[in-house]
Design a protein that fits this description.
With 264 residues, the chain is α/β, with parallel strands linked by helices. It has two domains: 194 residues, 2-enoyl-CoA Hydratase, Chain A, domain 1 (Alpha-Beta Complex); 47 residues, Lyase 2-enoyl-coa Hydratase, Chain  A, domain 2. It is built from eleven helices and ten strands. The strands form two sheets. It has a six-stranded mixed beta sheet, with helices on both faces. Strands 4-6-8-9 form a four-stranded mixed beta sheet. Helix 1 links the parallel strand 2 and strand 3. Helix 4 crosses helix 5, helix 5 packs antiparallel against helix 6 and helix 9 packs antiparallel against helix 10.
């Protein structure tokens, strides 16, 4: 795919209640340059207060989903302050996905390596093409993938993560699904359809329950089991008082049509 020099590194289009963000540096394998990191952050800041959007999809153009940090940019500067600032901005951007009220789905059509694999792991859900591959491959360039290890480790567990991190070897979509790095696998021909169907199903749910449930889930995953149950109990007791929950339960019990959700 050709791209003009002035074309944005990140594209956005909205389809009904779904925002679709497209990584648009195909000539650079969608490497996460500082410009692309900042563009993603700006969109996440806008989405955080956009109540019309119920779900977010992150996709990419070209032959790769993302090959991680732009090593040409990294190699262009040798000083710690530059590298620390770049990585801090990238980590903040990844955390913004975690904190968005909307679920975020990675649509992975091709390889995702290093910080590109980190981006997949940072999303709440991921639908991968059966042809997609994944790696934390920094070690093959002399660099342990420290920041990718945070989200990848939380997705796949310690031993599988360290296997990827120590070797830099690629795993295929089947292994990524088995290990929990992605949530679904589709054929290349069905990837668009399956990802959009998932987003549309999420967008049809009560938005306040989705937003508060996402926040609660990510919070309790960092707790011990007793703390997690206490938090989840408090959450559900409060959720049962909501107009949406009461209307939905009433519709189920009394065999009524599903109500229109009121929460924002």
């Amino acid at each position: 795919m050709s791209i003009t020099p002035n074309e944005p590194v990140l594209l956005r289009r909205d389809e009904d209640r779904i925002a679709i963000l497209t990584l648009n540096r195909p000539q650079a394998m969608n490497a996460l340059s500082g410009e692309l990191i900042d563009a993603l952050q700006a969109e996440f800041d806008r989405l955080a207060v956009d109540h019309a959007v119920r779900c977010v999809i992150i996709e990419a153009t070209g032959r790769a989903f993302s090959t991680g940090h732009d090593l040409r940019e990294v190699a262009g500067r040798k000083d710690y302050a530059f590298h620390h600032d770049l990585l801090t901005r990238c980590s903040a951007m990844m955390l913004s996905i975690h904190r968005l009220p909307q679920p975020v789905i990675a649509k992975v059509h091709a390889m995702a390596t290093a910080a590109g694999c980190q981006l997949v792991a940072a999303c709440d859900l991921a639908v991968a093409s059966s042809e997609a591959t994944f790696a934390t491959s920094g070690i093959t360039n002399g660099l342990f993938c420290g920041t990718p290890s945070v989200t990848v480790g939380r997705n796949v567990g310690q031993k599988r993560a360290l296997d990827m991190l120590f070797t830099g070897q690629f795993v295929d979509a089947t292994a990524a699904l088995r290990d929990g790095l992605v949530s679904r696998v589709a054929s290349p021909e069905e990837l668009d359809k399956e990802t959009m169907a998932l987003a549309e199903r999420i967008a049809a749910q009560p938005p306040q329950q989705i937003a508060s449930g996402k926040a609660m889930f990510h919070k309790h995953m960092e707790m011990n089991i007793e703390q997690a149950y206490a938090l989840a109990t408090e959450f559900m007791a409060g959720a049962l008082q909501s107009e949406d929950a009461q209307a939905g339960i009433d519709a189920f019990v009394n065999k009524k049509p599903r109500p229109e959700w009121k929460g924002k």
